[in-house]
Design goal:
Helix content: 40-55%
Pfam families: Abhydrolase_1
Number of helices: 15
Distance between the termini: 96 Å
Largest sheet: 8 strands, mixed
Shape: globular
GO molecular function: monoacylglycerol lipase activity
Subcellular location: Endoplasmic reticulum membrane
Family: Belongs to the AB hydrolase superfamily.
InterPro entries: AB_hydrolase_1, AB_hydrolase_fold, AB_hydrolase_sf, Epox_hydrolase-like
Strand order of the largest sheet: 1-2-4-3-5-6-7-8
Strand content: 5-15%
């Protein structure tokens, strides 16, 4: 009798636990449903101003945002700014006005899938397509025969290298590149260490669309904060502006597709690193040495050993992966010293 009584209690307890979990599950379903449809945050006044001062052009049926301003009188120099993942052209806002004082034209673009540009899905995002978008923008602005300076960061570094390859191999639509300045990009797969969330998103197959919907502001701010230096962290407003840019047009839902660029870098390493090591275009690298994605000294040692023609600026030891935001003065000085050297 005692054993039967004990078995009955265990069975009742097990049923009770299952019922409890069922109730929890039923309660969570509507909560998750509500969460997955949280509307994106409103644009801050700063982001609104950035958007309203820009324009759009069409590339293969997609609207691409760009910002183009006329600056220094008496100069014909043009600089095109290529941003990184997962942010946007707004990454350059701290050095925009100073660049305007040096260049006649300062131009920045939101790549397809980023910022205020369209974010189609499903879509096979590629570095090749982004390079073609830059070429299309130059054509749209009627600057095809003008010499342009490229200033790039992170993801934009690889887009710049594809443009460099096309320039040096006389491909149709190539840019006339006057100079190229790179910064903190994973251009060598062997010295590039993507963040855990990036690896999960790019390699999780059918689970990736679920993961992209579960990314929220807290996860994002923690992840992006890890690639800034401890003394150069974004403000709360800056975190929200970055997150707002991602959420605009549901950009969080295409992050897994865009992240295939990491695999593209590996597959096309010979093409892009080869372009970097063989070009005659003036080259410079601005590097924040605290970068966990492209760590010191592995990355910069590899760069200097392979790209012997390039000059290099290593910023203060507390500057990390976003040098143009963490140390805009140091970044700008390094860039202008390079531009004024030839």
């Amino acid at each position: 009798m005692t054993r039967r009584h004990s078995n009955s209690e265990e069975c009742a307890s097990s049923l009770g636990m299952r019922e409890w979990w069922l109730h929890v599950g039923l309660l969570c379903v509507p909560l998750i449903a509500v969460y997955l449809h949280i509307p994106p945050p409103q644009l801050s006044p700063a982001l609104q101003n950035w958007r309203s001062s820009g324009a759009f052009f069409s590339f293969k049926g997609h609207n691409i945002f760009y910002k183009d301003s006329t600056g220094a009188v008496g100069s014909s120099d043009i600089v095109i700014l290529l941003h990184g993942f997962p942010t946007s052209s707004y990454d350059w806002y701290k050095i925009w006005e100073p660049l305007n004082q040096r260049f006649n034209r300062v131009i920045a673009v939101d790549f397809l899938g980023f910022g205020f540009s369209d974010k189609p899905r499903p879509h096979r995002y590629s570095i090749f397509e982004q390079a073609s978008i830059v070429e299309a923008l130059v054509s749209h602005l009627r600057l095809v025969h003008q010499r342009v300076n490229l200033l790039s960061h992170d993801y934009g570094d690889t887009v710049a290298l594809e443009l460099l390859y096309r320039r040096d191999h006389n491909r149709t639509g190539h840019l006339t590149i006057n100079s190229l300045c790179l910064s903190n990009g994973g251009i060598f797969p062997e010295t590039h260490y993507p963040r855990l969330l990036q690896k999960l998103l790019k390699d999780s197959g059918f689970l990736s669309p679920v993961l992209t919907r579960l990314i929220n502001y807290l996860l994002f701010s923690k992840g992006i904060g890890d690639v800034f230096g401890p003394y150069t962290q974004p403000t709360e407003a800056e975190y929200w502006d970055m997150w707002t840019g991602i959420r605009f047009n549901d950009g969080n839902l295409v992050m897994d597709s865009i992240l295939q660029y990491i695999n593209q870098r590996l597959k096309h390493r010979e093409r892009w690193v080869g372009a970097l090591t063989s070009t005659s275009v003036p080259l410079h690298m601005i590097y924040g040495p605290l970068d966990p994605v492209n760590p010191h000294p592995q990355f910069i040692s590899r760069y200097q050993s392979l790209v012997r023609r390039s000059t290099v600026s290593v910023l203060d030891e507390h500057i990390s992966h976003y040098p143009q935001l963490e140390d805009p003065t140091g970044f700008l000085n390094a860039y202008l010293n390079f531009i004024n050297s030839f």
